[in-house]
Design brief:
- With 575 residues, the protein is α+β, with helices and mostly antiparallel strands.
- It has two domains: 198 residues, Oxidoreductase, molybdopterin-binding domain (Sulfite Oxidase, Chain A, domain 2, Alpha-Beta Complex); 307 residues, no CATH class.
- 42% of the residues lie in helices and 13% in strands.
- The protein has 18 helices and 14 strands.
- The strands form three sheets. It has a five-stranded mixed β-sheet with strand order 6-5-14-9-10. Strands 7, 8, 11, 12 and 13 form a five-stranded antiparallel β-sheet that branches. It has a four-stranded antiparallel β-sheet with strand order 2-1-4-3.
- Strand 9 and strand 10 form a beta hairpin.
- It is elongated.
- The two termini are 45 Å apart.
- The mean pLDDT is 97.
- The chain binds ligand MTE and molybdenum atom.
- The ligand Nc1nc2c(c(=O)[nH]1)N[C@H]1C(S)=C(S)[C@@H](COP(=O)(O)O)O[C@H]1N2 binds next to strand 9.
- The site of molybdenum atom (MO) has 6 residues, from loops.
């Protein structure tokens, strides 16, 4: 007996090809944000005030420190604590080549990480502490308040960054910035681990790790001396003063690991696999801490950079760029070369990313996609309780806009059929009544949008594993394609591809209810996918058909989904 190959899903013809670069006439129109504001109580304060206030505080501190230093008690204090904690052990090995190299690589990687991170933030330019992203509960934003008089999707909320600031700048380009952020993170992590190992296998750890409580009075003394503009003696070749030690220690051993942990905890797969830990350290709190850690790095770089100049540029650049301890001009030109490399990278990266977007997507997937994909294997089981349900759930995506769909809404989806076919033994059409008659599963889960917002809702629907049992995919079926009734933002049908393993996870359902009520059109009626180990864009709304396939290279632009084709996302996005 020979079996006929199944005819391909007719909706395939509605998929569209996509550009391999960003063309501005096809891209989201720009939208300027506002200067960042911080909410204190009910008042929003423009962070631009930090400049005049900071300058005034600095001037006062200088005056204060200078008068303090005339007091005999303070004189005695500085005499006892000259700046370097007395029992700080001495480093004998100077500034070895590996330390210089790692310092440079760290700067180089941070440039990409910080700029691409800002670009990701600009896609949902608000921060919150609570679990949900209810408008008005944000504590930081660089966007106006959420308009109440119309549907305002998360995509509407995204703002433009200049190409010199974000990577690649523009608006809603986080698909590409994420590849930069995660790929360079991996390199930065490798550099960091190698740095930790080398620090502790040599005597270099002595620079950074305080071994005596004396470091605190020493740091205070150093701060007073710096602030009075009469600097302490520098022994940077062999050991650091209290203030240096504390700030370097915090940067290397606290801010860096905190950034990594709070970054990972924003992932649906990791947060859901972490159980109570993921529920306690919710995504929005993690995003906020991630940002504060970023702000620490910005402050550190500014202060550290300024100190390199004002405490002796020749000695300092000789130490870190030439590995010698004298007052010659040897290190300074090398420092300039390093800065020129950073500047060149800075100027090139955004234009390159815009004109080679597909290449950036492919390279990113090659470097980090496989690692991210590992998290897909975990079956997400983490659920919340009814009291965690968000009062507000951001709508997102491109709404259906066709007579076909309006007609379905008008008749309350009576003639709607979900078509399930492709590489299956028993292709089938389901009416909404058929689906409702099957065993229903309810779950209270967090939705993680790639743009950064999240929300908790209760979903009711039928498990995908039951559909698998009915239609029986053949062994050749490796992926499930979800076709929507709606087009995507750039024309052509919205669709998305999942590995078939995702279909048998406990919490993968086709939802027709949200928070105990029938699903609204805004959130995907008549049917939407819930697949809790992936980011939101992979959960197709207004599902029209499911096709099981062996490969997706011949669908659309071949990247595994609409946003994968048009916005350069990855098709496996559990992180
Ligand atoms: N058909 C279709 N499905 C879609 C989208 C879309 O644009 N079209 N957007 C996706 C994105 S990016 C997200 S975050 C969720 C948003 O679901 P919500 O509107 O219920 O919040 O739907 C996903 N499903
Ligand atoms: Mo999203």
């Amino acid at each position: 007996m020979t079996s006929q190959p199944p005819s391909p899903e007719p909706l395939r013809a509605k998929l569209s090809d996509a550009d391999d670069r960003i063309r501005l006439d096809h891209w989201m129109p720009p939208q300027q944000g506002i200067f960042p504001r911080i909410r204190i109580g009910r008042k929003w304060i423009n962070t631009l005030w930090a400049l005049p206030i900071g300058a005034a505080v600095l001037l006062c501190l200088i005056a204060l420190a200078q008068s303090l230093r005339e007091l005999p008690e303070v004189k005695a204090f500085i005499q006892n604590h000259p700046g370097i904690a007395q029992s700080t052990p001495v480093v004998d090995s100077g500034f070895p080549w590996w330390l210089q190299l790692q310092h440079f690589l760290n700067m180089f990687f941070m440039l990409f990480i910080m700029r691409s991170g800002l670009q990701i933030l600009a896609d949902h330019p608000r921060l919150y502490w609570g679990r949900d992203c209810t408008p008005g509960t944000d504590w930081f934003r660089f966007q106006v308040p959420v308009p109440k008089d119309r549907i305002w999707t998360a995509k509407d909320d995204s703002v433009t960054l200049p190409t010199w600031l974000g990577i690649p700048g523009l608006r809603h380009t986080l698909g590409l910035s994420r590849w930069w952020h995660f790929s360079v993170n991996l390199l930065w992590l490798i550099n960091g681990v190698a740095f930790y190992i080398l620090l502790f296998s040599t005597d270099q750890w002595r620079r950074l790790v305080p071994v005596t409580w004396e470091v605190f009075p020493a740091a205070l003394s150093t701060a007073i001396q710096y602030a009075s503009l009469n600097f302490p003696v520098d022994e940077g070749w062999t050991r650091y003063n209290g203030l240096q030690q504390l700030s370097y220690f915090v940067t290397v051993f606290i801010a860096a690991p905190v950034s990594i942990a709070t970054g990972l905890m924003q992932s649906p797969a990791i947060s859901n696999a972490a159980g109570w830990f993921g529920r306690l350290f919710n995504r929005q709190a993690m995003r906020s801490v991630h940002f504060i850690s970023f702000a620490w790095f910005v402050g550190f770089i500014l202060a550290h950079g300024a100190m390199v100049f004002v405490t002796g540029i020749r000695q300092n650049t000789n130490h870190m760029f030439a590995g010698i301890d004298d007052a010659s001009w040897t290190g300074f030109p090398l420092f300039l070369v390093a800065m020129a490399i950073l500047l060149a990278a800075w100027l090139v990266v955004s234009p390159f990313t815009i004109s080679h977007a597909r290449l950036v997507q492919r390279t990113g997937a090659f470097m980090i996609g496989w690692l991210m994909g590992l998290a897909e294997g975990w079956d997400p089981r983490s659920q919340l309780t009814k009291k965690d349900i968000s009062p507000y759930f951001w709508p997102n995506g491109t709404m259906p806009n066709s007579k076909e769909f309006d007609d379905l809404v008008a008749e309350n989806f009576a003639s709607y059929r979900l078509h399930v076919g492709g590489l299956v033994e028993a292709p089938r059409d389901f009416s909404l009544a058929d689906l409702r008659a099957m065993p229903k599963q309810e779950q209270i889960t967090t939705h993680f949008c790639i743009q950064g917002w999240s929300g908790v809702a209760e979903w009711g629907g039928m498990p995908m594993r039951d559909i698998l049992d009915l239609v029986k995919p053949t062994p050749a079926a490796l992926y499930a394609v979800f076709y929507s009734l709606a087009d995507g933002a750039d024309g052509g049908r919205y669709y998305d591809v999942h590995k078939i393993d995702n279909m048998s996870h406990d919490l993968t359902i086709l939802a027709y209810e949200m928070n105990g009520a029938p699903l609204s059109v805004l959130h995907g009626a008549p049917l939407r996918l819930r697949c809790e180990n992936e980011l939101g864009f992979k959960m197709v709304k207004w599902v029209a058909a499911i096709e099981f396939v062996r490969d997706f290279a011949d669908l659309g632009a071949g990247q595994g989904g609409y946003n994968e084709d048009h916005e350069f996302y990855g098709y496996r996005m559990p992180i």
